[in-house]
Design goal:
This protein is of the alpha/beta class. It folds into 3 domains: 2-102 and 187-242 and 382-428, P-loop containing nucleotide triphosphate hydrolases (Rossmann fold), CATH 3.40.50.300; 243-380, Fumarase C, Chain B, domain 1, CATH 1.10.275; 434-640, 3-Layer(aba) Sandwich (Rossmann fold). Helix content is 49%, strand content 13%. The chain contains 28 helices and 18 strands. The strands form 3 sheets. The protein has a 7-stranded parallel sheet with strand order 3-4-2-5-10-1-11, sandwiched between helices. The protein has a 7-stranded parallel sheet with strand order 14-15-13-16-17-12-18, sandwiched between helices. A 4-stranded antiparallel sheet has the order 6-9-8-7. Strand 14 (500-502), helix 22 and strand 15 form a beta-alpha-beta unit. The protein is globular and about 80 Å long. The protein starts with a helix and ends with a helix. Bound molecules: iron/sulfur cluster (SF4). The site of iron/sulfur cluster has 14 residues, from helix 6 and helix 10.
């Protein structure tokens, strides 16, 4: 530990080599705890307030410990930041010869096989000239790029439709049967990950591919001594997603498209196939149309409200079974047809399983309806047992860290949800002086959030504060509907001249760049801006939160979990809903103060913070800001800035 003391000291290597490094006792303590965890192969759940410097606190012991380490982050942006900036800086400062690899999900790499298929069949899938232009750029990029990572080709927008056709999915990848296997970017990235000392992944990849052992990655986790999860508060959500099962009409339409391409190439003489493909394609589209609403989640127990749904699902199963039968007779003609046969069989199996009550004990089944697609989901009621089983396959150190994991330093909720019964826990407060830097304002006179017209009253209460702060605010809403309403009302307010930015009017990066440049804007957002956003300095001086972020109780997964806990005689509100809301709120509130010189006001409009018995637990979980209910005090605060 002496070595860590010297590394993190004012004269240490980090001070000398890393720009902006500040000595913080919390950071050193956290690094010591992580070093011990790695050495003794334990489990540590570590909460580190904003500004602790948790990245270096885990990187330094991980780099020094040797052995193989997987670091998993919440987003691809954070992954790039770690790989391109933080790890090289720490490695250079410590002068340790460790190799590092960056591994993303397969959808991030150009797939030679599907690119070639696509180039041969442009008349089949493209009508759009712009997309054809993109395809040519991708072709050139694939020939010259070393890694095939699509983030390296900025000329083609990330959401361009063509990417879907030139990347692989777990379904559509031919693996070792692929004629392009030797030059494959996905396989090369995986090979490098297997050879490297430190592998940087993201949570989606970790759960989908590493933990569930996708082909080609099965050796990664067993070879690893340490796993570190940054932004670990996101794990329960991600793990639920990947420990569950799902099948979407989008996958079935992809299957229809790929089968059509493969059939044209290798089974042109087999006449029944095109009709069967078209019938299955239509049946998948009809299933989506069986529910008129969009962006909604419906529990299986509620599905009787949609009388056409079950008929459409039965019809889709029949058409898929028919297609499978035909593919079975043709599969041996080419590896592409064999891949389509396997996919048809797996999709059919998943649909049949989803329908079968006896198979789905311990899962909640539900339907998610998007604009163009519909997905059947089965989500485990609890991920604790599944995760625990995966963790205990071999002995290694596990570190879970984030700025928001506990409720008043109590980790029971998180540990219970993740099955971390034997974990040690630790919490380090932010080094910032919140009492001086920030003010928590809860306005008076607002009704309860279920009150009709609540959002209008929130906006009325926010207007004088927005004027006092001269814009420079995030207005964070808990629903898209409230977000739209806030935007409408602010836009219609006479004399309110601050520029308004609304989530969805551009990419998140674009909106944040505009926000920083404008210097007096109000950014109205919902979930996208609630976390992972870092705006330092005066550009962001006010964060308004419309109400406490409880998940909607009609959500099928949440309501099934509540019912399960209630049946077990537990208090679902106190043990599950409240801690989740607190962790979310801490994330939203965390946008305000990003360094020692930041100052600002956090306005939480929800009166339940004061009127309900649990409100105290909520505000006591926030950093220790000065609190007020007096608008004049808020105005003074801004006047002083
Ligand atoms: S192995 Fe899979 S990802 Fe790689 S080129 Fe072939 S199909 Fe594409």
């Amino acid at each position: 530990m002496l070595e860590l003391d010297s590394i993190f000291s004012p004269e240490g290597v980090l001070s000398r080599h890393i720009a902006g490094f500040r000595v913080r006792s919390q950071q050193l303590e956290m690094a010591r705890a992580i070093a011990e965890t790695i050495e003794n192969r334990r489990i540590l759940v570590a909460e580190a307030g904003t500004g602790t410097g948790k990245t270096l606190a885990y990187l330094v012991p991980a780099l020094l410990a040797g052995g193989k380490v997987i670091i998993s982050t919440g987003t691809k942006t954070l992954q790039d930041q770690l790989f391109n900036r933080d790890i090289p800086a720490a490695r250079a400062a410590l002068k340790v010869p460790v190799s590092v690899a960056l591994l993303k999900g397969r959808a991030n790499y150009v797939c030679h096989y599907h690119l070639e298929r696509c180039l041969q069949d442009t008349h089949l899938t493209f009508v759009d000239r712009e997309e054809i232009g993109y395809l040519q750029l991708i072709e050139r990029y694939a020939a010259n790029s070393k890694d095939g990572d699509k983030s390296g080709l900025r000329e083609v927008p990330e959401n361009a439709a063509v990417w879907q056709l030139v990347t692989s999915t777990r379904d559509s990848c031919l693996g070792s049967d692929c004629p392009n296997y030797k030059q494959c970017f996905v396989m090369e990235a995986r090979k490098q990950a297997l050879a490297a000392d430190i592998v940087v992944v993201n949570h989606h990849l970790f759960f989908a591919d590493v933990m569930l052992r996708d082909e080609g990655l099965s050796e990664l986790l067993p070879a690893c001594n340490t796993v570190i999860f940054d932004e670990a508060h996101q794990l329960p959500e991600t793990a639920s997603l990947f420990f569950g099962e799902s099948i979407s009409t989008g996958q079935l339409l992809d299957l229809a498209r790929d089968t059509k391409i493969e059939a044209l190439k290798d089974a042109r003489d087999f006449l029944p196939l095109p009709d069967a493909i078209a019938s299955m394609d239509k049946a998948a589209r009809d299933l989506r149309l069986a529910i008129a609403e969009e962006n909604t989640r419906i529990a299986l127990t509620e599905i009787k409200r949609y009388p056409n749904f079950i008929t459409a699902l039965d019809h889709l199963s029949q058409q898929l079974a028919e297609l499978l039968k035909l593919l079975e007779s043709q599969a041996e003609r080419a590896e592409g047809l064999e891949n389509c046969r396997q996919r048809a069989a797996e999709h059919l199996y998943l649909i049949q399983r989803w329908r079968d009550d006896s198979e789905m004990d311990g899962y909640v089944r539900w339907v998610e309806v998007f604009h163009q697609a519909l997905q059947l989901n089965a989500t485990p009621l609890s991920i604790a047992d599944i995760f625990q089983k995966q963790m205990t396959t071999s002995l290694r150190a596990w570190v879970f860290t984030s700025a928001t994991l506990s409720v008043k330093k109590d980790f029971a909720h998180y540990n219970h949800e993740m099955g971390l019964n034997t974990a040690q826990t630790a919490s380090w407060d932010s080094p910032f002086d919140y009492a001086k830097q920030a003010l928590l304002y809860v306005p008076q006179g607002l009704p309860e959030p279920h009150h009709k017209g609540y959002t209008d009253q929130v906006v009325a209460a926010a207007l004088p504060v927005l004027r006092a702060s001269r814009g420079r605010a995030f207005f964070l809403c808990t629903s898209l509907r409230a977000m739209q309403r806030v935007h409408e009302l602010l836009q219609a307010t006479e004399g309110f001249d601050f520029p308004l930015l609304l989530q969805g009017q551009g990419s998140r990066t674009y909106l944040l760049d505009c926000f920083r440049e404008m210097e007096n804007a109000v950014l109205i957002g919902s979930q996208s801006f609630w976390e992972g956003v870092d705006v330092r300095g005066e550009a962001l001086s006010l964060v308004i939160i419309d109400k406490l972020p409880f998940a909607p109780p009609d959500d099928p997964v949440l309501s099934a979990r509540i019912e399960k806990m209630t049946n077990e005689g537990r208090n679902a509100f106190m043990e599950y809903q409240l801690p989740r809301a607190v962790i979310n709120l801490k994330q939203g509130a965390g946008r305000l103060i990003r360094d020692e010189t930041d100052r600002g006001v956090l306005m939480i409009c929800d009166p339940r913070l004061i009127t309900k018995a649990y409100g105290k637990q909520v505000w006591q979980s926030l950093p220790p800001m000065k609190r007020t209910r007096d608008l004049a005090e808020v105005e003074h605060f801004f006047a002083d800035l």
